[in-house]
Fold:
Amino acid sequence: VTGLQQAWGSTRRVSRDDWAEWVRRLGVQLIKESPSPALRACCTLAQAYPPAAKALFNSAFVSCWSELNEVQQDELSQNLHLALKNQDLPDITQVLLDLTEFMEHCDRGPLPLEPSFLGDQAMNCCSYAKALHYYESQFQIGVSTEVVDALISVNNKLQLPEAAEG
Structure:
C-alpha cells in the first residue's frame, strides 16, 4: 500500500506532462497492487503499453479501493479532489470523472466527492451530460440557488430549453 500511497499523491504537479505522468503512474501502481491476480498479470503490459494501463485504470482502482481502510480511502479521496481542483486539463479531468462515474455503478458505492464539485469540474471540461448528472444529484440532496442556476446553465449548454425553463 505504501507504493500506492506514493503514487496517489497529487502535490507538486504543474505541467500537462506532470499530470499525465501522475495518471499513468497511478494506473500502473493500481494494477501492480491489485488483489486481482488477473489485473496483476497485466502489470508488465501496462508499464510498456500506456493504453493498457488506461483501459484497466477503473477496474484496478475498484479492486484496490475495497482493500484500503477508511483512513486510506479518505486520503485517496482527498488526493483525487485535489487533482480535480488543481489542474485544468480536460483529458486528466475526464479520466477522473470517468472513474467517479464508474464507482457509482459499482457495488463499492460512489467516491465521497461532492456532486456539485464534480458538476463544476465536468462543466469546466465541457462534459455537459456528466455535469447534468452531478447537478441533478446535488438537487436531490438539497435545493439551492446555485444548484438551480447550474441546472439551467447546463441544460442550455445541452440545448434543452424546455428542461432549462422547467
The longest helix spans residues 16-33.
